[in-house]
Every structure is written in C-alpha cells, then in structure tokens.
Design a protein that fits this description.
The protein is of the alpha/beta class. The chain is built from five helices and five strands. Strands 2-1-3-4-5 form a five-stranded parallel β-sheet, with helices on both faces. The radius of gyration is 13 Å and the shape is globular.
Length: 122
Amino acid sequence: MKVLIADDDADLRDLVSIAVEKAGYEVAAAVGDGLSAWEALKAEEIDLAVLDISMPGLTGLELVERIRADDELREQHVLIITANAQPSTAEAVHLAGANGLITKPFQVRELVDFMRGVADRV
C-alpha cells in the first residue's frame, strides 16, 4: 500500500513516515503543503492520503473536496489529522468526505489501525 503524507510540520511528517514504514507500507511522498500533495495525488497511484487539516497552499479540507470532485480520485482513501478537537471540525471533515479523522496528539497505534483497515480494502 502506498501512502501520501502531507503536513507542514516536518517532525510530524517524519513520525507518520516512520509509522507507515514500520507497518510495512510504502511512503509514496511526504510533502509540506497542500499543492504538493495535490500534485502527488495526480502523478502517482496512492492508496491512502494522510493530510493535515491546516497547511499552506491548500488545506486538508480543500484537498478532500478536490479529491471527491475529481473523477479519477473520487474513491481515494483520506485520513485527516488535526489538533482541533472541536465537534465542528469533525463535522467539517465528515462533510468534506474524508474517511477518517485523528486528533493530535495521537497514538501511533490509531494511525496504524486506520492504515490496516484501508489496506484490507485496497
């Protein structure tokens, strides 16, 4: 399974990359902004996009909306990561069409469990 990681925090990108690799999956790309994430999604077949909700260029929510509107990417699995634990944020993530939400700080196990669930479907 190929995973795209998009977060403007380099430490978080590294943490997620390590978790992806330790779980036996491949990091297709690890980028720091939404536009680079969009380009990676368009350029390569990716099984899961792990997106920070707040990034320069395009936010995670804007990316999800683009993905769901794109005929080729519509079925893309998307996990949003955010530090905002407000119910309104969870609702916005759901309405945008993301497959899941993890709130920072999170346990790496949560991420691995989500990835395994996606891997079982791809």
